[in-house]
Design goal:
alpha/beta; six-stranded parallel sheet
């Protein structure tokens, strides 16, 4: 759970900020693979700063995991050498979390100065260096402090070459407090317009949505996803 950000909404922010034991991780992978599981997701904290990150990814692939997903804040991938290592490690999909269209908005969410510049460079490097088969996208968690930036966020990500956005609605647990959770009904019209504008050119995936969001977006969802 060690991380170089301190996100206001972190689901595991109230856990001890320490690395897990490599032997335990490997044994867990072995146990689930023996049961037939073939998909594993590595997140954190920030998985790319875990000392055994590349090793545990390699272990997973050698055990037979077919889908190996990583969620990262992308900051270490601002360095091309690190980006290449991550992208060529054996992962099959990657999400880089970026929570604003400007440094002010993003860094208010992640409580880390300089994080925006590194994350954006990490996204640039991922777009430029990833192999064609890698499933790549970005992730934004919506708060009262950042959801208004969605139009600028979509425009920025499209310019960067991103073609997949996970829009995650906030559930208040971990470090997240109810006070930062936005009203989904207030967000829905903006999202509807963005889905309508970008369509399949920039695919939107909604995470933790509810009936209010569904009712407001059903027309666009039917057109683009079914």
């Amino acid at each position: 759970y060690i991380c170089n950000n301190y996100c206001s909404f972190c689901a595991v922010g109230n856990r001890l900020h320490e690395n897990g034991d490599y032997t335990f991780h490997r044994k867990t992978l072995e146990n689930y693979r023996a049961k037939g599981v073939d998909l594993v997701d590595f997140d954190g904290g920030e998985p790319t700063i875990y000392p055994e990150f590349l090793k545990i990814i390699r272990d997973a692939r050698e055990m037979g995991y077919q889908q190996v997903h990583v969620t990262s804040n992308g900051r270490t991938m601002a360095f091309p050498r690190t980006a290449r290592k991550v992208l060529n490690s054996g992962i099959t999909s990657l999400l880089i979390s970026c929570h604003g269209a400007t440094a002010d908005v993003h860094e208010e969410q992640v409580v880390a100065k300089g994080a925006f510049r590194q994350t954006i460079q990490g996204i640039r490097n991922a777009v430029a260096l990833k192999h064609e088969s890698l499933d790549f996208g970005v992730n934004i968690t919506l708060t009262r402090g950042n959801w208004q930036c969605l139009p600028d966020y979509y425009a920025l990500m499209y310019r960067l070459g991103v073609r997949k956005i996970n829009v995650q609605f906030l559930t208040p647990f971990g470090r997240a407090e109810e006070s930062i959770v936005p009203d989904p009904a207030e967000i829905a019209p903006t999202l509807m317009q963005l889905i309508d504008t970008y369509g399949t050119e920039l695919k939107t995936y909604l995470i933790n949505w509810n009936s209010v969001i569904f009712n407001n977006l059903s027309e666009c969802i039917n057109e683009y996803f079914f």
